[in-house]
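Mods, move this if it's the wrong board.
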Amino acid sequence: MSSGATATLAAGTAISAMAWAVRGRSSSVFAPSVWRIPAGRHSIALTFDDGPSPATLPLLKLLQQHRVPATFFQIGQNVARFPEISRQVIAEGHEVGNHSQTHPNFALRPPSFIAAEFSRAQHTIAEVTGHTPTLVRAPFGVRWFGFRAMQRRLGLMGVMWSIIGLDWKLPAAAIAARVASRVRDGDIICLHDGRGTLKDPDVGPTLEAVARLLPILIGKGYHFETVTQLLCPLK
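Not the wrong board. Structure tokens:
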């Protein structure tokens, strides 16, 4: 192999390694995180990112109909915009985690920016709901230098996912099929009840997919838990 080809291969390997460190679901390079639990309890956690939004309300009705608890990773800006919806999420027995204040991509951002984004969201959520999050999920799953210090200072556990529904771009039937065909004991499933900081996003495909999925997953005997409940045996 020529020196040029060797250098190209090395560069490609380095890029792949960095990409995994930043977004790999099992990576803890930049901060500790969880993405599933060991099998054995036939339990799964359903999570929703980017809310709250007006679409959170019909989603709450679906979850209530099936008595399914979920974890909502909420954006501080959206919590301030829809405080009553955020409070309703908690009032109905669901868990709320920190999903940053404005939903930026944190790649190449300085640690001070990362700390400020999550500190602001932590304050906003606590002030509006009376609940201080203990879980954090990075927008786009992108972690960077500064995440470890931020999580330690705010007392947050990072949460990734074992299944992501791609519900921002797939139709409802495809979302439901994607999740149903992949789900396993101990999974953390990622869907969305918002679209970043859009005020009134169209999440119709997600709502329809959840309406299809819940009877399927319940029929398979899965027990739903919040992420914190799912992780209890690991503490």
